[in-house]
Amino acid sequence: MWAKGDWRQISDVIVDKGYDFYDVKKFIRDSGKYPLIPRRQGAIYSGIQPKDKEKYKTRNAIERFFGKIKEHKRLALRFDKLYITFFSFFAIACLKVFKLLC
């Protein structure tokens, strides 16, 4: 879950079709990253290059992880007001999800 190292070393930003806008892509490129965004239906410009489709497939695992986390009503609705309480329950939910996925 928690990556070791410097987050500024991220080279690719992998997001879904909802972020397929020129301004978003320009912001990502201006920050020195490469946007991996699939093309929206009806868009007149090109989307993900064929070589990048393999990288984009890793997004599925992340989406499934957060989907499992959001099954916990306490996390989805943010019942806990204190950060430490919320994070503690998040850690427990992560352990439960990792046990299911592994």
Write the layout of secondary structure elements.
Blueprint: E1 12-14, H1 22-30, E2 34-36, H2 53-56, H3 58-69, H4 73-76, H5 83-101
Parallel strand pairs: 1-2
Summarize the model shown.
It comes from Candidatus Regiella insecticola. With 102 residues, this protein is mainly alpha-helical. It has five helices and two strands; from the N terminus they run βαβαααα.
Taken together, the total number of domains comes to 2
Q: Sketch the major β-sheet.
A: 2 strands, parallel
Shape, principal axes of CA atoms: elongated
Helix content: 40-55%
Gyration radius, rounded? 17 Å
**Unreliable residue stretches:** none
Strand content: 5-15%
Distance between the termini: 14 Å
Count the helices. How many?
Answer: 5
The helix/strand order is EHEHHHH
Q: Which assembly state applies to the chains in this document?
A: single chain
Structural class: mainly alpha
Instruction: Give the neighbour order of strands across the main sheet.
Output: 1-2
Secondary structure: number of strands: 2
Mean pLDDT: 80
